[in-house]
Amino acid sequence: MYEIIYQDVEEKSEYDEIIRKVLAECFKEENLENSKLYITITLTTPEKIQEVNKKYRNINKTTDVLSFPLFEKEELEEKIKNNDFIYEDILGDIIISIDKVKEQAIEYNHSFERELSYMVVHGFYHLMGYDHIKEEDKKEMRPKEEKILNKLKITRN
């Protein structure tokens, strides 16, 4: 279902547990529990995420989370509808800046758990083909994110 890669960041079981429970709920909510979809989550530094942002998006600045889906939304919806998961497929990659998570938890006055959970669920829905650039897309994506966090009782303080 997922792999966590620590890139220049200290491994912490707390991070693993947060990611595990959030992804389990995401997969359950989207009826993907029996799929063979696989996600790689890389926890890294602001410098490393900036390098990736520059290389793949031509944006030379740090960010909190990057997502790289391997399916178009319609293609994935078709696979889900037909339960077409005979072989293991990679859903995509999520890269999260742990320092940015810590910084934003303080900035938004909520817990580290809430911020990391949000980054994971946000990245997951990008992998599922959702976006938030246009307002109508945001209205579809945000409620899905909040539903997962509310089910897990990971609320804003």
Write structural notes for this entry.
With 157 residues, the chain is an alpha/beta fold. The protein has a single domain (2-151), classed as 3-Layer(aba) Sandwich (Collagenase (Catalytic Domain)), CATH 3.40.390.30. The protein is built from six helices and four strands, in the order E-H-E-H-E-H-E-H-H-H. It has helices at 13-29, 46-57, 73-81, 98-107, 112-127, 135-151, and strands at 2-6, 37-44, 65-69, 89-97. A four-stranded mixed β-sheet has the order 1-2-4-3, with helices on both faces. Helix 1 (13-29) links the parallel strand 1 and strand 2. Helix 1 crosses helix 5 (112-127), helix 4 (98-107) crosses helix 5 and helix 5 crosses helix 6. The chain is globular. 28% of the residues are buried. The mean pLDDT is 93.
TL;DR of this structure?
The chain has about 160 residues and is α/β, with parallel strands linked by helices.
Q: What is the CA-CA span between the terminal residues?
A: 30 Å
Spatial strand arrangement across the major sheet: 1-2-4-3
Number of strands: 4
Give the biggest sheet. Answer: 4 strands, mixed
Which architecture would the CATH scheme give at its second level? Answer: 3-Layer(aba) Sandwich
Q: Please provide the ordered H/E string of secondary-structure elements.
A: EHEHEHEHHH
Q: Shape from CA axes?
A: globular
CATH topology: Collagenase (Catalytic Domain)
